[in-house]
Each structure stands twice: as C-alpha cells, then as structure tokens.
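Quick illustration, no need to memorize.
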Amino acid sequence: MGAGAKEKKMANAISAADDSSFGGRVKSLPQRTKSFYNDVRTEMRKVTAPSRKEVQATTTVVLITIFLFAAYFYVVDFAISRSVDYVFSHVTSK
C-alpha cells in the first residue's frame, strides 16, 4: 500500500469520525474496526519474545526485590508490634 493510499484511507477514517451522528458512527464502524485490526497486526509484527537469558535476569531481579521487601516489612512489622506491646503494657499496668 502506497503512502498516498494510506493517507487517503486515514483521511476517510477521520472524516467519518468527524460525523458525530449515530448513523455516521455506525457507517464508519466496519472501516474503523478493519483499521484497528490492521494497526494491531502491524504492531504485533514488531514484538519480539525475550531471550532465555533476559527472562532469567529479570526473574532474578524480581526474586531479589521480593525478598528485600519481605525483610523490610518484617522488620517494620516487628518494630511496630513491639512498640504497640510496650505502650499497652505500660498503659494497662498503671
């Protein structure tokens, strides 16, 4: 498809989209749907699957991050729990 044909097609889609009446939107639905699927197909051709090495690297980063967050939240939870217990023990003992 040449550049001129594509521009004309886009211009037709835009002019159809400018017709805000219900009938105009219904008329342009098949063309807009076809254009959408063509755009999806074009973009999906550009997608590449990651290599095994990339997947392993990102998985390692995710696992390390999970363990770091788990340790952090454990320490914070422990500190808050001890603080609350300390406050309650001093408030109730008096």
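The radius of gyration is 30 Å.
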